[in-house]
Amino acid sequence: MVKLVCFQDKVMAVFTSLSPNTERDDLWLAWQMLFKPWQWQKGQGVLELENYFKNWLPVSRAFAFSSGRACLYAILQAIGVTSGDEVLLQAYTCVVVPNPIIWLGAKPVFVDCQDDFTMSVEDLEKKITAQSKAIIIQHTFGCPSAIEAIMALAKRHNLLVIEDCAHSLGGQYQGQALGAFGDISFFSFGRDKIISSVFGGIVATNNLALAEKIKQWQNNLTYSSYGWILRQIAHPLVLFFVKKTYYALSLGKFLVTLIKQLGLISRAVSLAERQGGKPVFISRKMSNALAVLALHQLKKAARFNAHRQKIAALYDRELVGLPGVRLPQFRGDNVYLRYTICLDKAKFLISQAKKQGIELGCWYDWPVAPRDTNLDKVFYTWGSCPTAEKLAKRSVNLPTNIQTSEKDAMKVVQFIKQNIIKQNI
Ligand SMILES: Cc1ncc(COP(=O)(O)O)c(C=O)c1O
């Protein structure tokens, strides 16, 4: 009996990751799209997505690409980043951010972050040199960066500012949308982002000269292959069934690994990228099929974010004052892609949670994630960003996505309280 209850509890798992934005209507749309291969590459979807996004942000020009990293690559070439240049970005990031800088022969220069997971202005100032060309500011987990201070510094040093809004679609700062502050910005529709089409992203700008260059670059790209698009359309459907059986007979983890090995679903970050490499599929036009899925999700973004904020408020209320746990202290109108707490023994907490059917997240558990990234290849020097390194050891992401109900969030809270207080971890 006890075994059965435990089993049922695990079947009702809570997921921070694994395509958490997919709802029934998204599954239905993906299912229908599977049978319309003539619409996979070309169609009106991309233009509709770009036009909708432009008005939604709002911004004067928007261009869709096959991923957020493809957007950043397009931006860097448009602003003329080339060999010998330096581009400043924060540590406590994903390897796909420094990679496009490296592909253009330039050097990523890592700036430390502060306790809110965004770039430290103090360290930024120290790392600007005569070779610096641009600054990428990352609104990590939806938290606006120190925008005014960074913009002022950039102006003083004549540097362009690129906003990385991969985590912050729908976020605002002082009433203005994130993504409309810098010279140019990009958003991601990756599988674990604010909205998802598995792969996809969009560049946004009010700078017409840069927009022209981005447009040209976009025109010259080719479409992703039919096989690649098929895998992305099938991704939410496959994951839906994987999640339903995730804890049954402990098959879930095995199944995810197996279907990745078989190439049935794609990896978020390929093995080559972890070594600073550039896989051929990375820089492509956005395919029509994925644009249709992304637009459908974009229309739900406000509801998703309101839900995230409600769940974050619950965590704020329930977890305040827990010994040894630092809750996120964010500025501005944060959309809480993930609610990230910091504590010693973060890894242990994540592994204990799995046993209870709670899949917590580990973004970012390495100064340039994922953990098996070759730091030398991406120009990261160990010790150069101590706060980022400390946060990487101590971060645990709690789920806020639309699939996480208040009851699920309370399950997470109870688990953390029990483990922190009883086991004193
Ligand atoms: C902070 C950050 N910026 C940019 C990206 C790139 O987005 P995409 O996965 O769509 O290429 C990611 C992806 O994980 C990210 O975490």
Automatic annotation (TrEMBL):
Give a yes or no for keyword Oxidoreductase in this entry: no
Active-site residues, Swiss-Prot/TrEMBL: 193 (proton acceptor)
Q: Which InterPro entries match?
A: DegT/StrS_aminotransferase, PyrdxlP-dep_Trfase, PyrdxlP-dep_Trfase_major, PyrdxlP-dep_Trfase_small
Quick check: keyword Ribonucleoprotein in the entry?
no
N6-(pyridoxal phosphate)lysine (modified residue): where? 193
Enumerate the Gene Ontology biological process terms: polysaccharide biosynthetic process
Keywords for the protein's UniProt record, in alphabetical order: Pyridoxal phosphate
Tell me one GO molecular function of this protein: transaminase activity
- Which Pfam families does the entry mention? DegT_DnrJ_EryC1
- Highest taxon listed in the record's lineage: Bacteria
Q: Which residues form a coiled coil?
A: none
The UniProt entry, under PANTHER family, shows:
DTDP-4-AMINO-4,6-DIDEOXYGALACTOSE TRANSAMINASE, TRANSAMINASE
Q: Which family is this protein grouped under?
A: Belongs to the DegT/DnrJ/EryC1 family.
This protein is called DegT/DnrJ/EryC1/StrS aminotransferase
Source organism (scientific name): bacterium (Candidatus Gribaldobacteria) CG10_big_fil_rev_8_21_14_0_10_41_12
